[in-house]
Amino acid sequence: MQYARLGKVLKKLDENKTLALGLYNLTNEMDFRKGYIAFAEAMERLVNKIRTAVIKEADIDKSYYMSRVVKVLDISVKKIDNGKIAITLPYLMPKRTSIDSDAYIIDPLSYALRMYVEQNKHEKFRNASVAIIFIHTPEDRRIIRDLDNIETHHVINIISTMLLVDDNLIDMGLFNRPGDYVHTEIIVSSKDKKNEEDEKKDKNA
Hints:
- By secondary structure, this protein is α+β, with helices and mostly antiparallel strands.
- The protein has two domains: 1-60; 61-204, CATH 3.30.1330.
- The chain has six helices and five strands.
- The longest helix is centred in the first third of the chain and has 29 residues, at 29-57.
């Protein structure tokens, strides 16, 4: 057995613990927020390192491991009314600036989307509308909608690649609503199909 990556993970775990404990010494609210984001991103990078260690050193099949991660993170992709596709994800963090720390969500989402496409023989949408809904509990009602969220951009990119013919033909809206727990819902619908249904209604009116 190999332990090179495991040793690096344990070292990073200690560093991140020190980073987290340092938050208790911050009295300025802005410094606290910045420090908390830095800690969160560090933990996300650590998750990616752990995945690599599991796959490489423990010789675990990546697809098998991703299928387990999808369940752990409660990621789901399913068809709902009128051919729409509903995607459930953990909450996508606002004010993200790092471009190398979101593989923790992109990798399992890619796996879940690929399984959906293969199992449902999905025909890619030519044009689509995408609604990103941030679900919050009453105590988390201050959750921020952030159009510059890098994590959101990367999620939309992978959804577009898997579900659309052309990722430039997409309308996107961001929304908030209360719920039982904090998470993100993404509804993807074909604008072409909606137009066809509207035309049928007009003809039958």
